[in-house]
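Appendix B. One record, verbatim.
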Amino acid sequence: MTKSELKRVMVLEKWIDGRLAEQDVARILGISIRQAYRLKAKYRHGGAQAIAHGNRGRKPAHTLADSLKQRVMLLYQERYFGSNATHFAELLAEHENIHLSVSSVRRILLEGGLRPARLRRRPKAHRPRPRKPQAGMLWQIDASPYAWLEDRGPMLTLHGIIDDATGEVVAATFRPTETLEGYVTVMIEGLRRKGVPLALYSDQHSIFHPPKGKPTLEQELAGEPPSLSTFGQALADLGITHIKALSPQAKGRIERLWQTFQDRLVIELRLRNVCTMEEANRVLPELIAKHNRQFAVAPQNAEPAYRPLPETPLEHIFARRQYRRISGGQTFSWKGKCYMPKPVPGVPRWEAKSVVEVRVGMDGQVWLWDQGRAWPCVETQASQTPAPTMAKKEAVPASPRKPAANHPWRKPFSSKQLQRSTASG
């Protein structure tokens, strides 16, 4: 019996002996007088055991069967290991037709020793920044290197963009490492799907912010613009305000997105047996759509803040930019190769020794940029033919300065040869 039940037995004994009144019994036990008389009658009829709860020792009617618990633990070990309780409950309902609450799934895993208790650190004091009221007012962009394919494939880096107002993943792609091409790919995809946002939030990576991008005091006083990276020049052409975060907490929305993806996306890729980067990029749109349906929220203002796309193709905007000098043959060099603009009827030739802007796309396509227009360029024959190599001359063995040791001239004279030489002399 429990302490509360023993207390009831002692109080009822004193009441039966006449040492307590019915009002005192009700007050001590915290029950009504009518309930006190019920307990007194039950105690007189069945003794102290009648005071104990009637369901003690019985199996609840709504308890889960042991076979179901064993199946859930077996499924977690074989197919869904590593997933959290919430995601595991969703996967059981989606793939196994097993509908259990999150608390039941967590309790089953803890009883089987499959989910260790997570040690939660004391949260740091970071004042949360409220969401933007309109979609398209702020995008957050970042990349996350992780073992997305576990031991089935190589280490990949997921590049992604999330809208601050809705939490919607605008675009994402896998690349081997964090590269400019990966950021350009997700940026072009997001711009084509949604439009041009007002601002973009990123970290201080050299892709966004070159090491020498901050102007000096003399440059600020002279009014010179700061140097921009290839990505920064494209944002400036699109009129997107670039905000650089000083800490990971500043762009916490996309940092929490990586935690969610590292917890859920890895399991989804494992269930689809994805082993290569190409396969991962092929199933990624489906997984992103599933994530947005579950986690995206409605903005405060339904009217989006996106702007229309410019007339200039995005491939020309997100391109590497260099300046070259046109030769007399209408050619210029780029990384050891010679290029020539395609001749267009009615377009005058470029002046010799004039400086022109050259733009190179992420796919290697080269354009000559002039007056807001891109002129395609082709590689000339001069750079396609390999340079002639000098024929090697046959090595002529050098004549020795003195005869070999076994040469007749180097043999010592015999006694007869010496006698002959003296006699002739």
